[in-house]
Write a structure and sequence with these properties.
- The protein is mainly alpha-helical and about 150 residues long.
- It folds into two domains: about 5-90, Uncharacterised protein YqeY/AIM41, N-terminal domain (Hypothetical Protein Yqey, Chain: A, domain1, Orthogonal Bundle); about 95-145, Arc Repressor Mutant, subunit A (Orthogonal Bundle).
- The chain contains seven helices and no strands.
- The chain is globular and about 55 Å long.
């Protein structure tokens, strides 16, 4: 069973269990899948599904931060709950130590020594660590390692 089928099955289970919050969160996700399938006229692979989930998590995270700044704890909590529903479908995220080790290897491979070489490192790191670490975390760690 691929990832998209798993999510659809979990959606059906949430409907049967009358778990409205999970149902609504997964419906938003499946509608994002359908939108991409219709727009690009293609069947989604697991990698495509993971990228869409990551995009949705980032959107929810940004919205939660804005709600927090506006003092809307109720809306922030809703966004955080949706993120929690999406996280089990993403690959296991690297710990800070694992991320640092992976980036040190990439830096050695590219021969980067200063922040001017950051573009080379980020290009390779984004490809190799896709799905395993957020781009913002990768960026921050590379800055620290090259500083």
């Amino acid at each position: 069973m691929n990832l998209k089928e798993t999510i659809n099955q979990d959606l059906k289970d949430a409907m049967k269990a009358k778990d409205n919050k999970k149902r609504d969160a997964l419906r938003l996700l499946t509608s994002a899948f359908k939108q991409i399938e219709v727009d690009e006229r293609k069947e989604l692979s697991d990698e495509d599904v993971i990228k869409i989930i990551q995009t949705q998590v980032k959107r929810r995270d940004d919205a939660a931060a804005q709600y927090e700044q506006a003092g809307r704890e109720d809306l922030m909590q809703i966004e955080k709950e949706e993120i929690a529903y999406y996280m089990p479908y993403l690959p296991k995220q690297l710990s800070d130590e694992e991320l640092k080790e992976a980036l040190e290897k990439i830096i050695q491979t590219t021969g980067a020594t200063t922040l001017k070489d950051m573009g080379k490192v980020m290009g390779l790191a984004s490809k190799e660590l896709s799905g395993k670490a957020d781009g913002k975390r990768i960026n921050e760690c590379v800055k620290v390692l090259l500083a």
